[in-house]
Fold each of these.
Amino acid sequence: MATPSRTEIISLFRSLLRSARQFPDYNIREYTKRRTIDAFRDSKTLSDPSSIAAAFSDGQSQLQIGYVAWTKIQVVVNDVLIKCASYIATVIDCRGARDLSRRKPFTEKPP
Amino acid sequence: MASKIISATIRRSLSPRTLPHIRPLSTAAAVTAAAEPYDETAGISMKGVKISGRPLYLDMQATSPVDPRVLDAMLPYFVSRYGNPHSRTHLYGWESDEAVEAARAQVANLINASPKEIVFTSGATECNNISVKGVMHFYKEKKKHVITTQTEHKCVLDSCRHLQQEGFDVTYLPVKSDGLIDLNELRSSIRTNTGLVSVMAVNNEIGVIQPMEEIGQICKEFNIPFHTDAAQALGKIPIDVNKWNVSLMSLSGHKVYGPKGVGALYMRRRPRIRVEPQMNGGGQERGIRSGTVPTPLVVGMGAACELAMKEMEYDEKRVTELKDRLLNGIRAKLDGVVVNGSTESRYAGNLNLSFAYVEGESLLMGLKEVAVSSGSACTSASLEPSYVLRALGVDEDMAHTSIRFGIGRFTTEEEIDKAVELTVNQVEKLREMSPLYEMVKEGIDIKSIQWSQH
């Protein structure tokens, strides 16, 4: 891609910091903020346009992953647990009816 | 009807208000630094201890948090691409297999090996078992002797004890007071029927880095397979299997900010080292370790290794700075602080300190707001001091008061400062109560006292 402009770089920096703030865990939040600032500071001295473009696209891909994982988890876990709940409920229903008819008194030893 | 009630209760308890893992986690440091929107004002009470928030995590040698980038790489393989990598007949299997092979290449890159030399296992303990017992059982006709050190991980020592019961000879090399082995002793204990030398790269309790290249040279000279447990070293110090001349290397996923339950074993192909498999079954992983390869965990370990390669320099610089801050902060306020293990050949993120004239159990009980460890997690269940410190020649009383601070990628300056403050407070409080410390302050030499028998 073409060399990113100054405004594009600054807007990427701001979006990365904004996404870092959303992490619920203190350690990960602080690390993401610090790492973004340090990474941008270290690549300030890059002059070769292809390396600038590479660093920029690297930063963009970091924006895609990272905080998205945490928000994804909440949606996925919610979804999975709700599905599990209805599945477990149906299993208990069927099992209960079958076992009650078949169960022998507790005096007998299980096979 | 009962099912309807059950599903209704579950649905109610799942509403976003009450799902526990959405609530932001507040640590003790964050409570002091900034006001959190969701304050757990009641605090946490567990096992009879009440603390104001979650403790600061300074125990990176026990395990490390999973990096969000690693978690992101793993999620698709839990949610949608959940195939078994050994299913050859459909897309689910093919894409899983592709992911496993990509992860294998990522792990191999970090240690400068070829992907064909990596076998995925369930962790470094399994790798150590395969290496020690598997190699010796394979070559048991000719080779009857194993050389290892006194400071190895419990799984290696236990495997060696198992071999001893089967009739093999094991030499446990002593270490010097700085934790490093003596190369001349290693050389002199090599026999013609030595089958394996096992020395861990970075010790999990004291953090010393053994002279791997020199040991590799000695093993090459005598043509003996060299096994190393590099679980703590992976991603922290540069590893090169050719420079170190290792034949077998155990790697662990959860020490490099990856998931728990996965590890990798490096096995050299030229010259080929053969092992007897400890897990028999369908011949997966080239017959060395049968069993379905856990795709999401393996993908996580691969992503963690790739990240470690990119971030090694940055992390090392930062961890060294934080270690200096911690050590100088404690030394500025306290005397009688001893660093266990060599200070030169050491990984900075592992700081094992002993505080003189302080009782260890009470120090740990007072440091409940900081998650640290005394000794390693494997041995902390028993009351005796760690065998590693005993091997270093540390006095019993100093060995009891040792604390291991583990600093990692995610540790912040505020956490270090808070840990310094809490440690100094606790040690000063205990020393104030200690009659031994009073005697030392008056100038009496503790060692010269004749304690009377009652």
Amino acid sequence: MSEVEETLERVKVQSGVEGYVIASHDGTVLRRFPSMSQELAEAYAESMKHLGKKSRNVVRDLDPKNELRYLRIRAKKHEVLVAFDPEFLVIIIQKWTPASA
Amino acid sequence: MAPASTTNRGTKMNINTGATPTAKGPSTNKSSKADKSALPIILDSDNVDRTPQPLFVSSYSLLPRGTDAVGGLKVGTDDGIKFPTDTTPLPLCSTSPAPPPVPLELPKAPVATATESSEADDEEDKHKHKHRSHPSHISSKAAKEAAVSEFSGKSEDEEYVITLTESVTEFLVSIPGTQMSNDAPNYNAIKMRNQAYQKVLDGRDHADNLQERHSQTVNYAQKTKSVQAVPCTTSSVGCQSTDWDIHDAYIGGEGDEEELGKKPKELEVGGVEKLVRTFTSALAAKDCLLDIKEASSATFSKSVGTGTDEFDDEPKAKETEETNSEMIINKKKNLSIMSSTELLKSLNLMERAVQQNLYHDSHLRYRNYPSGEEALIVTADSKTSEEEVAMEDDEEGVSEELAAASKKNHGASMSKLFTFECELSKGRAATTMSWNRGNKDILAVGYGSFHLSDMEKDGGLVMFWSIRNLAHPEKIIRTVSGVTAIDFSTAHPNMLAVGMYNGTVAIFDMRKEKDFNVPVLESGAMSSKHMEPVWEVKWVDKGVERGESLVTIATDGRVLEWNMKKGLSLTELMVLKRIGNSDGVISRQASGLCLDFPLNDSSVYFAGTEDGHIHRCSCSYNEQYLDTFSGHSGPVYKLRCSPFLPEAFLSCSADWTVKLWNCEDTEYIYDFHSTDLNEVVNDIVWSPTSGSVFASVTGDGRVEVWDLEYSVIDPKLFYRPTKAESVLGVTPLTTARFSDNAPVLATGDAKGKVVVFRLEGMEVGESVDVAEQRKKLLDLMQPDEQV
């Protein structure tokens, strides 16, 4: 448990990280970055849940033995990284610079 | 004249004909023809027999008479095949005399009645044999009599008569014609009748006894009745079938091909578990409509399969009030999630992913992938490119010096790539490092102290760093005492030997998932273990039989060899003795500070002491040194044999110098000392790819990369801490290692930071020609012989 907390802390202090959401697979928000509002967190969780299902469908359609592990969406303003698991999702929002593209 | 009809052979007709022939006898033409329907004998006006011959001739006729079974055919003088000589009518054609037909008499078909028929035939035949040319069969006596009467006179001829009888005619279809000829016997009667009928027809219109009447059948009253069936209840169920859906249903969704081998029962059990899991998770969902209390009696219809993702929208219409039990379930679930290992894994993954965004460039450079800029540089003009490359150096002041100091543009440079640092390592000195031999991306760094300090009671650390995560090591081992030496084994890349400040030697197995920080073997309780800080541990391959063993050297002057066959056992290889004047010295033993085995030779080793002497010793001989190399005026901190040339070795010491030796010569060949260096040289390391390159790190935070080919006076590349960094105090760099699979040099400092430098321009080819490097080094080591 503490390892989870530690890792979460480390991720939080990485430069560029604007927020994170940890949600269960049905969209209920378990943890969120303090500066994020609940509505925004829920919106993220909900939309990522659907996107995750679709992506998982795609991945498994191509090869049923495969499994979706994580997804990265690079938008203009920031980048969203989502890690998937049958039980939960971890969503991290990070700013990205063109240099690291 | 010709008979118009075929002869009827039926008995019926014969009865009719029975009468007529006697009456008619040699009748007129007409009458004989009128009887054509039955009369077997047809005579024309000239009494010529015109009876048509049968078309079918049976072979029975050839059988001898007298045999009852056959039907009474005899061949004898009386009878025989008669060949009538006189003209007889042809069958079916009686207009002209024809060639004599064979008078054949067909026997009756049923053999069962042969006896009867034979008798009858006999009688017939008797009559017949007088009959000269009777072509057709006769089954009535009367007819035969008639026939006989005609030809009785001719029986005297010697003729063989074979008579045949015809079988009974069976009527299959008999459609008597409605027409009759004018010669019919009842012609008049029928004609009369016809006329009468015609009269009736004519008088139909106004006949009294003819009345037309219509009648209608009863029409029953009709009634319409309809019945409607109860429509079947229908419900639509949608499902999207996908490849993985089918796979899941078949496999169970959690296994791979191994699952196929499982018994159905096991799969069923697994399926039930899955069902229960899905069910509980569905129950715990916020919008679950199912009341928790009824869970036991609830059907499993709520558990949704994996395939119905499209239709899986939870009903948002009604929201039940949150019962206490639901909340509890939710909380429990949340807790379980938060503490699950999967979450940890995911978070680790995310951490790396986040870092990848930041350090992507660095990672690429580490791996030696050409980035966009570098690719451009390579194609550009060499001179300008070298200058550009040289200018890439981070340090502001240094680049100018570099350009000035270099005699020619060598096109190489060194720049900081990234720093391994974490909270835990801050403040501890990185005393030693070792790249893993198996997975060459993992760097193990030992943290401890060189001197007895306050940090000692906190113990030591070994951290395993990977470039994927710069903020946190992959694994951490905490040790009781500060770590002063580590080495990964080559034969078993998961084994790590650790030498500590309190003299303990421990071996860890990194393959273990959980207990990797518990040493597999430890020298803790052994009586003859080191009592002083262990400065060097080295795995040495002693050959096939003995395997790999560990050799350590410590301040107590002893060189010990450890064996892991049964637990940990040690043998003392050597006790380093002081040489020279031993008066006034506290101990006759010298303190050993470093140790190295030359390439390919595990029986000889070099040991460096605090006195500044380097001794070459043999493993099998623990009394005397083989050689002594003196030259250093301070303690020899590190000793390194060349990975290409076994005779060459480097040594660095507190006397600010690095010396290159040839083991055959007790005098050093080269002495490397940067002009402005006023600090100890803590570590030296040969480059694994180039035989003439080595790096050194000093107490003033300097990193110098020397290339013998380039110059022996100045380092080819160096890195000095910037003025900004050195404001807070110079951090001595304590250890350095080249990486085997990447063009990087890792250095550790006394504050716990591990900085990784990227070397550009140094040849890091895919394959290193060992012989070539050897030769290069050898040549360079013999400067006097060069022109």
Amino acid sequence: MEAEQSFSDICGGRLALQCRYYSPSCREFCVSCPRLSLRSLTAVTCTVWLAAYGLFTLCENSMILSAAIFITLLGLLGYLHFVKIDQETLLIIDSLGIQMTSSYASGKESTTFIEMGKVKDLVINEAIYMQKVIYYLCILLKDPVEPHGISQVVPVFQSAKPRLDCLIEVYRSCQEILAHQKATSASP
Amino acid sequence: MVLKAFFPTCCASADSGLLVGRWVPEQSSAVVLAVVHFPFIPIQVKELLAQVQQASRVGVAVLGTWCHRRQESEESLGHFLEGLGAIFSHEPWLQLCRERGSKFWSCKATHRQVPASLGAPGQDQVMLIFYDQRKVLLSQLHPPAALPDHQAGDATASAGGLAAVFDTVARSEVLFRSDQFDEGPVRLSHWQSEGVEASILVELAKQASGPICLLLACLLSLISAASTSRVFKLWPLSFIWSKLSTCEQLRHRLGQLTLIFSTQKAENPAQLMRKANMLVSVFLDVALGLALLSWLHGKDRIGQLADALVPVADHVAEELQHLLQWLMGAPAGLKMNRALDQVLGRFFLYHIHLWISYIHLMSPFIERILWHLGLSACLGLTVALSILSDIIALLTFHIYCFYVYGARLYCMKICGLSSLWRLFRGKKWNVLRQRVDSCSYDLDQLFIGTLLFTILVFLLPTTALYYLVFTLLRLLVVTVQGLIHLLVDLVNSLPLYSLGLRLCRPYRLAAGVKFRVLEHEAGRPLRLLMQGALLGP
């Protein structure tokens, strides 16, 4: 079962949330970030090339122009492969674990999987980000030494940064599964 | 809890039969290791499982049935398979079924011992997780071997979560040793059933490595015993050994080789990786060293080098003399104290003169020395670079001496100045209490103290300038030596084996797992694919 809704992120950009319910024990939430805008790409390229042309008129060395083209290309490739995240996915499987995947614009995917035995809870937390106070969803991990302590806080949807309404949707859905998981794991 | 069935991808196309594996009750997961095909005799299957259990200490049992319907007329097979549940009782009993031409499977798990008040035997939701047996075994995600003082029996269930699954697969190597061409009583299907995976070269290397390691370990222990003998502990030799970077590098390499060729096996994958990295770096080192050797000894390059060495040393000495003449004059417009200037300048000039005579004395032997030193490149490029660094240190020994003299003079001057400055203010350094105390001096003490203080203050610029110039020269030499040592460290510690593995066999370096949800149909069990998650880009 699939449902798609549109929300906005903390800066006002449009986000799309896709919820897929594979089974009562497995759900997937996919947040897709706004695409690379042509306007900003053109602006950056023009700035770099104008600066290079300015340097060229000063130094009369044509290497500067080829270097500028090279740098622009490499910079764009590096940005697409290492920085620009297209989609972030949260897959929660009852009694197995939670998996977070980030897929970059160049197609690269980086995955983190946390076993259910390590997950204490999934909460919405507040944070001060630059000049704003934002909400973010995070996974609390159990501390192996202290039974009631928390060893690590893992934030989810870090580059998409959706707003509270989107987070509440995801939170409610995940808590259903986590509650079921806690009920069955508490019983022997 | 949802029942998880870990199923190997290689058995997905196998014929119908019995599922053999291990049931982990804490995780409510069934790890399927192999499929036993028809025809079989139940007694023999039970014997085989008992053998495997004894050899690997993993609780292997028959978990259920696997039905692969290739034609429509195999309905009777289904009933036959259900009857098997009575012979091999297992709680819960799994029944996996796959239709021909359909991607979706049907799974049922029945509990027999559920109390009768619930009516029919209870059924659980089943989740199928496919895993690649070969990759799971090779990526070594399982925890290291249990301590030897654990009692023999079922494997320790202390490994939680997915580690228990990897542990099970890794320990059941005994089960995977028979392939379909063996004439055993039972026909199994698993990742090695097409033929046990082995390589002739690897097997030969394993057989040969035993005696070779023993021989080399004896040789290396002899060498290290000889190097730690009493002869080398005598004062002049031990001092020289500690200063030369070549000896340091040789000792490091000896230590590494001893570790590689030691007769005890690596305990865990991390140690094995470390040993392999060391071995590859030693090979690369020796290969580069031999390349350097062949380049040096061809076309009489050593002769050219030796011919160029003495003029270069002369040139450096001349430049130093020019520098000292400049310092003795009015350097950068500063006015020096003539007498001190002349004394220091002449002292250093005489030093340079001695040094040049020494170099000229050595010049007929230089070529032969260089030729013999060049031979040491066959021990490795790092040794050759360390020797180069030592040669630079020896050739610029006079700069080091000048730096030491300048620094000592400056240090003494500063000590004197600080002490006389305290006297000038009427204070004294209390050695007992480690602090500055006031003190009443006599008039003549004060007079002489102030006089000396004035003299030292006016001589300060001269000494400071000499100190500055020689420190900068020494820094230059140290920078060059530092760059060479950086290169040596790079060759020593670059983990080339791991880099090679990352490029050629990335699944060996998996750090975790990732799951992918396969095509799903409502009403059918959920199917997931478990793969290794690689590090890096």
